[in-house]
Amino acid sequence: MDFIEYALVHYRWIFVCLFLLPASVIYNCLFYIRNRVVFMFSSLPEKHDQKVTAIQKQVREWRDEGSNTQMCTGRPGWANVSFRRGLYKQKMKNININLVDILSIDTEHKVVRVEPLVSMGQLTSTLNPLGWTIPVLPELDDLTIGGVIMGCGIETSSHKYGLIQETCVAFELVLADGSLVRCSQSENVDLFHAVPWSHGTLGFLVAAELQIIPAQKFVKLRYTPVHSRADMVKTFTEATFASAKHEFVECLVFGPEKGVVMTGNMTDTAETEKVNHLAWYWKPWFFKYVEEFLATGEATECIPLRDYYHRHTRSIFWELQDIIPFGNNAVFRLLFGWMVPPKISFLKLTQTTATKKLYENHQIIQDMLVPLEKLNEALDVFDTETKMYPLWLCPMLVRSKPGFIHARGGHDDMFVDIGAYGAPRVDDYQPLETVRRLEEYVRSVKGYVFHHDSDACGQISVRGKLL
Questions:
Q1: How far apart (Å, rounded) are the C-alpha atoms in residues 14 and 83?
Q2: By the 8 A CB rule, do 196 and 210 touch?
Q3: Which of 49, 96, 99 shows the shortest CA–CA distance to 72?
Q4: Hey, CA dihedral for 99, 152, 436, 394, is it positive or negative?
Q5: CA–CA gap between residue 449 and residue 385 (Å, rounded)
Q6: Nearest-angstrom CA–CA distance, 36 and 32
Q7: How does pLDDT run across 406-462, given as a tens digit for each residue?
Q8: How many CB atoms lie within 10 A of CB 334?
Q9: Per DSSP, what are the bridge partners of residue 392?
Q10: pTM for the complete prediction?
Q11: How far is C-alpha 322 from the chain's CA centre?
Q12: Counting Cβ atoms within 10 Å, is residue 125 exposed (0-12), middle (13-18) or buried (19+)?
């Protein structure tokens, strides 16, 4: 059994390359064509109303049957981007929710109305050619609007706008009694503030309205390599608080004392020789490309806007290197890079029990928000517990307003998301104990842990995440 488990993990790339990559390409093409046709014929509002009515009917049937079990969406656990397997769905009443469309784009009022299963890739491919975008756009293609609203949505513009919930105008939900309710800043206000981070506990999200802002063609991105922890924290902090100067801020940490801080702004003009089309399939994976600046020094270039938004998609941040170890090889990129990445849902669907167990025991996927002033201390904790790099740093403004996540003390606070994805390098890694210690640290500094991560501390941890 040990040999089989080893083979399933270390040679899974054979199955991924031969089957999952082609299947992902076919699925993406068919879904893209379907979306374009549906949006072109603009029959969505009528179809949307019919689908919502069907959801209400399912909920009322559940009530008529005695409400003996809890409800959840019928979307299978393997279909989402979360590391969690969603086994709880097997014991609940599954409500089928097939809401995957962009309903309307109102450029006069600067609002886009979407269904909850609209993905980030779907949104940018529709909005960007029209000259629009949303202020906070999480970077992986397959993340959905419903997921980032009900869970958490952060991006490199969050130091300016906050979480994606801060850019939402209204939500439409089907409640447990089967009623359809709209909530906003002016109607059902308590519900409006309670929806983000609620993870579907208050109702089924059936539509959301988000702010849109004018989009420009490129992001002018500056790479600043730093070779000491002090310089890293100082450069990153200064860039974070200069929100009027920088629309986008992030840092990739490549070791205890080295990283690359990136700051960017949208622009419509770019010199041809300074344009880098990151999304071209033969290009290096973004995190590998960024790491080169540690040796070559500071630089500035222009990246097409959509390429920038989805810069971490092709390598799924850096998770894909553990599945296809040679995936960033120039020859592989040239021959097969156009098929990358495999859909995360397909990767989860085809996991065997042994593979799931080994990933749970040898991988960590954690996003933890800590106050920005605790960044240096937090990096020490992550280094001690995981010795895993790269780490992703993304600043986030937490506003002093109602909701599950809010600033304390009556004023806005600046936090930083520390994203750890991959295989820890510490000796004798114990996933449960390590995650528990990380969560305990985050709670001790009054931080937050994203709920899509593995939760080692049970109800105590949940209270620490939300209060």
A1: 22
A2: no
A3: 96
A4: positive
A5: 16
A6: 6
A7: 888 788 999 999 999 999 999 889 999 999 999 999 999 999 888 655 544 444 343
A8: 11
A9: 252, 419
A10: 0.91
A11: 19
A12: middle
